[in-house]
Amino acid sequence: MLAQINIQLEGNSLNFNMGSLFHGYLMEHIDTAYADYFHYNTTNPFTSCIYKEKDKYFWRITTYNKKAYYMIIETLKQNMPEQIYIRHKDTAFNVVSHYIQETSFEDLFLSNTKCNRITLLTPTTFKSNGTNQIFPSISTLLSGVIEKINKHSDSIMLSDEKIISELLEKTYIKDYNLRTKIFNLEGIKIKGFIGTMDLSIKGDNTLSQLLNFLILSSQYTGLGRKTSLGMGGVKIWIFYFRR
C-alpha cells in the first residue's frame, strides 16, 4: 500500500529546513516502539518533508508499506490536530486542511500515465566516496528507489538484475533546471540540489515502463538520503495517454 497525506499549514517562518523538527513531532505522536524501530534503519518506509507550492506551505508524509500506513497515516487521520506545536521552536502552526492519496505499486506499474519530469521539492543529495553530491547521478538515485522498494514493500520485489542493470545503463537526464541548495539539519549544513530534471531512456517498451514505474514510485520513496528528515521530497508531472 502506498499513501501520502498533505497537510496545509499556516504560521510564521515555515520552510523546508524545518523538516527534521516535524519528523520529531511525528515520532512523538506515533507508537513509541514503532518510532524507536526507525532509529536502527538506514532507510525507512516513509518520507516527510515541508514544501511550498503557490505561496502555501504543506507538510507531506508518504508511506510505502501497510504497517507504516496504519501506524502513521491512519494515526494522523484519526487524530488530526487543529495546530501542530513544534517544541524546539516554541511555535504552533495552524492546520488549514489536509488530503490523502492512496494507491499501490501494482497500480503504478500498470498506470496509463507517462512521467519524465521530476520536481525536487526539497534539497536532495546522495553519497559517493563518502561525500554528499551536488549533482544527480540517475543510476545511483534510481538504485536507491529500487533498494527501498525491495527492503520495505510488502507486495513487490524488483529482482531481475539483468533488466535493472540495463535500465540504469540506458537512463539519462534529457534536460534539467537545477541549482545547489543548503539543507540545515540540526545545525549541520548539507549541500544538495533542487529543481527539475527530465529523464529519458534508450530502450524498448519494457524498460520505458519500468522507468515510468520508478519515477512514479519516487514520489513515495523520496530520492537520495535523509528523506524521512525532510530531504529528497519529490513531485511528479503526470501526462495521461491511451494505450
Provide the descriptors you would attach to this structure in a database record:
single chain, 243 residues, four-stranded antiparallel beta sheet, 39% strand
User: Low-confidence segments, ≥5 residues, pLDDT <50?
Assistant: none
3D shape: globular
Total E-strand runs: 11
Q: What amount of the residues lies in strands? A: 35-45%
Order of helices and strands: EHHEEHEEHEEEHHEEHE
Main beta-sheet annotation: 5 strands, antiparallel
Radius of gyration: 17 Å
Mean pLDDT: 94
Secondary-structure class: alpha+beta
In brief:
The chain has about 240 residues and is an alpha+beta fold. It has helices spanning about 20-30, 30-40, 65-80, 105-110, 140-150, 160-170, 205-220, and strands at about 1-10, 45-55, 55-65, 85, 90-105, 115-125, 125-130, 130, 170-185, 190-200, 235-240.
